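Hi F.,

I've been meaning to write this up properly since the lab meeting, where we talked about keeping a consistent format for the predictions we share between groups. The idea is simple: the sequence comes first, exactly as it goes in, then the structure tokens exactly as they come out, then a line or two of notes. No screenshots and no reformatting. I'm using this chain as the first example so we have something concrete to point to.
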Amino acid sequence: MVKGEKIYSYVKFEHELESEYREKIALCKRKSDVLETLFETVKKLLSKINDEFKHLTRDDTKLNNEKIEFSEKWNEKIKELYKNSDLEAIINRLTEVATHRIKKLENDENVDYFNIKTK
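Output, unedited:
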């Protein structure tokens, strides 16, 4: 970063979306629901920054090793936004919430499997 270079903060947008996002994530019962909620929230966040992201589709994103990845079509635009902003940290926080929920759902499935009551 160069001295005097402008830094953009999108925390305001994060706070606008955060409570609804956490509520929706808590209600998710399947991994696919969690991923859809994460995608919709990231899309809303990016659309607040640039209307062009309204054309982002579910196929343009994937969760890989607890990080969200974007298709080549969008990757350069997003990396450009990451350069002088806190956007990457915000998206990482949203992704972290989703991955914790997925782990909890997987753990609950394992516990349910081993706690099957027999007559």
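Notes:
The CA atoms of residues 82 and 88 lie 5 Å apart.
The chain has one domain: 11-106.

If this format works for you, I'll send the rest the same way.

G.
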